[in-house]
Amino acid sequence: MSNPSVKPAQGKLGVMVVGLGAVTSTFMTGVLMARKGLAKPVGSMTQYDKIRVGQGADKKYLHYKDIVPLADLNDIVFGAWDVYPANAYESAINAEVLKYKDIAPVKDELEQIKPLKAAFDKNYAKRLDGDNVKDAKDRWDMTEQIRQDIRDFKAKTGVDRVVVLWAASTEIYVPVDEKIHGSLEALENAMKADDKEHIAPSMCYAYAALSEGCPFIMGAPNTTVDIPAMWELSEKTGMPIAGKDFKTGQTLVKSGFAPIIGTRCLGLAGWFSTNILGNRDGLVLDEPANFHTKEVSKLSTLESILVPEEQPDLYTDYYHKVRINYYPPRNDNKEGWDNIDIFGWMGYPMQIKIDFLCRDSILAAPLCLDLVLLSDLAARAGRHGIQRFLSFFLKSPMHDYTKGEVPVNHLFKQYVMLKNAIREMGGYPADETID
Ligand SMILES: NC(=O)c1ccc[n+]([C@@H]2O[C@H](COP(=O)([O-])OP(=O)(O)OC[C@H]3O[C@@H](n4cnc5c(N)ncnc54)[C@H](O)[C@@H]3O)[C@@H](O)[C@H]2O)c1
Fold first, then answer.
1. What stretch of H or E contains 37?
2. 152, containing H or E segment
């Protein structure tokens, strides 16, 4: 079955990534290596997962690409912006995530990916001091320059479509201010007035992407597209938006494990999560103002799975704490500890300990690929605004809080949303059958 209202994935797909650091260079290297048959894109739903379509005697389990028209890995053309001038090959070597043998076969292609000058403001990430930065008169001019970059990239590469993905450093926390972020008109006025306090550079990228007809994905916890002004812009330009914050290590565990406690009606007294991490992301997050953005995102996961109002005996006043500690010797190999204090029959306490020795960028790379391919699909399917079906990939999923919507953080409910969106875009009815 196919859905005639979804446009085919014709031509090349441009993937322009903001930030050419550990995650991005690992993502790009993996795609280029997979294209040559030299590596497997393990962890990618679009490349591996199978979804049931149809019921009873008609049921079939199909890969996503056999249900909906997805762009092929061979059709991806990469571009990037970064504060530092290192090309994707140098960045992959510097990041020390991948072994040389897994980078060398695609060295020539990676070297061609040279970062464009970044739209950057040091006040948003004090620990960075690269000089590959745009000279912009004000925030409006910053946005115009990014728009020109996207047009130039399209003209130079001949790509048919572009998706813009933020995989740059976490900016300092920008609280949502209704007066500035509440409408598109107010946001544009603030950009023209060069309101540096309320307009983060990431908002300039998002505004530019959506205005140029490109879906925008926020992979960091920044509030960039999580504001009514950007929802209005995405409706106006008919583009999908997704975010925020890749759900990789500890939060993936949390959103998969918390349902065990909730489903069995066990109680929770406290959940303490701490991490040690030594890459540049860890360095930026060592700055309290940048960590606060991450903390808000990481804390939101439990509250919507173990809800005090629904089960006051079990979940009232549990203590939830998240820490990230910069510890250089571990580089990208993060260690995430969780100590969970639960209680059972008659209130008797028990403890669960989880120690996840993970690799941050190895977990994030497949999410980049899936978010890019599925956002491109959503655009061709005419879906615009917040894409809730992408919550599966994100730590702090976007939702319209002005209408009282609550985020869905429960991993398995998110998976149902993902599968149903794929079914619908493939012309099959959505359903809730579990298999
Ligand atoms: N790896 C994970 O598991 C994971 C999970 C969730 C979120 N994230 C987020 O993904 C992002 C990337 O992580 P990483 O490990 O690759 O970090 P990184 O520090 O290696 O790379 C980020 C890059 O972004 C660049 N940058 C910063 N501001 C920029 C701007 N305004 N324009 C262009 N470039 C800019 C930096 O110079 C740097 O090279 C971070 O925000 C991180 O919090 C990562």
1. none
2. helix 139-157
364 lines ligand 1 (CB under 6 A): yes
Pocket test for ligand 1, best of 165, 250, 281, 293 (most atoms within 8 A of CB): 281
Nearest to 136 by CA among 123, 121, 149: 121
Q: Which amino acid is at 246?
A: F
Does 130 contact ligand 1 (Cβ within 6 A)?
A: yes
Residues 6+ apart with CB under 8 A from 2: 69, 426, 427
Give the number of the atom of ligand 1 that is nearest the alpha carbon of residue 334. 3
128 CA closest ligand 1 atom index:
37
Q: How remote is the C-alpha of 277 from its chain's centroid?
A: 19
CA distances from residue 3 to 63, 370, 380, 382, 426 in whole angstroms, order as listed: 16, 20, 11, 12, 5
pLDDT digits (tens, 9 = 90+) for 19-34: 999 999 999 999 999 9
Give the atom of ligand 1 at the shortest distance from the alpha carbon of 249: 3
At residue 267, what is the residue type?
A: G
In this structure, are residues 390 and 374 in contact, taking their beta carbons and an 8 Å threshold? yes
Q: Is 212 helix (H, G, I), strand (E, B) or coil?
A: coil
Span from the CA of 289 to the centroid of ligand 1 (angstroms):
15
* 435 CA to centre of ligand 1 in angstroms: 36
What are 238-286's pLDDT values in tens digits?
A: 999 999 999 998 889 998 899 999 999 999 999 999 989 888 777 887 7
- In the DSSP assignment, the letter for residue 169 is P
Q: Are 67 and 52 in contact (CB under 8 A)?
A: no
Tokens of 264: 């069995």
**Structural domains of the chain, ranges and CATH numbers in brackets:** 13-246+362-425 (3.40.50.720), 250-357 (3.30.360.10)
Amino acid at residue number 425: M
